[in-house]
Amino acid sequence: MRYSYETLISAVSGILEDLGEERSNALAAGECLIGADMRGIATHGVHLLLGIAKRVDAGILKVPTKIELLHDEKGTATIDGGNGLGPVAAKKAIELGIKKAKIYGISMILIRNTNNIGSLGYYTDWASERDMIAIMACNAAPAMAPWGGAEPYVGTNPLSIGIPTDSEIRFNADMATSIVARGKIRKASREGTGIPDNWALDSKGIVTRDPDEALKGSLLPMGGPKGSALALAIDGIAGILAGSAYGQKLTSFHELEGPTGVGVSCILIDPSKFYDKEVYKTDFSKYLHKAKGLTKAQGFSKIMMPGEMEYDKLRMSLKNGIELSRQTVESLNKLMKRFGKDPIVNID
Questions:
Q1: What torsion, rounded to 10 degrees, do the Cα atoms 139, 141, 142, 146 define?
Q2: pLDDT band at 175; cut points 50, 70, 90
Q3: Neighbouring C-beta atoms of residue 147, cutoff 10 Å
Q4: What is the model's pTM?
Q5: Domains of the chain, CATH where assigned
Q6: Distance CA 1, CA 321 (A)
Q7: Which of 257, 264, 317, 334 is most deeply buried (CB count within 10 A of its CB)?
Q8: Can you say whether the dihedral through the CA atoms of 23, 26, 32, 37 is positive or negative?
């Protein structure tokens, strides 16, 4: 089923306000969640709203979100997210990082004590649209064993890099450091489908295709020891350096065990402080165009750039409406009913 942006932003931001969030923050968080669905990243989209509501009801996610600037010096800053809405803290960090990068050429903003921030690619894409190079990472509750291990110790700790271009080709790499995001395994569990045999181990350290057993066990890192190394490094930068939780001190957003303690790292770079900005964007665009025109390997009909699939989906969403699963719509309408509102109406 497809829905207009106006319908969804009114519904999602309205529910967040009803839960106790301030209107401007509710709109910012709603834009992030809907933005994920618009890009085809349903695991980080509107379906998270039900989890947010449960955490607010349990008193372990605080709204309205109160952001505190703990450290502010030249190109650096540390923000306390107040154990509130993750997208609110993340958006403020990106905005502050851009302001500082315009002055100092490069900035680094850290966030401690926040929650699930949604899709990192949403923020790096937003920054690259403003002619900034953005590198963003955050940690998460243990879901992956270090390479060679059999028990969860580190999160899927995602990393995203956005680079501005002057053409229709966008560069926005957004990836978990595991082979697959844990959300995709939860989705398979909800839908009763199996998973590939290179995604996860069960609780005994044996490869499994059962999503329920995978959720009891450990995800496998992308690229073996390389993904494991990146995940550990992200805990060191986005977690420990930010003064936030890390490793087994983090708790899952999907379990009502207490504050998640998520930490985030945002690095912003202003290309104009290093090189002619327009020349840089043009040269990088030409570089990507040439890559797309190279000889294709057997079995491939197209060479895709990082983020191109999501951008294609975004354009389709803007044209035809935003697609939501039946389960997400049911969850959203339950919240609408709870607050005395009519169900959302699709445009199909």
A1: 0
A2: very high
A3: 16
A4: 0.94
A5: 1-64+314-348 (1.10.1530.10), 68-178+221-306 (3.30.1370.60)
A6: 9
A7: 264
A8: negative
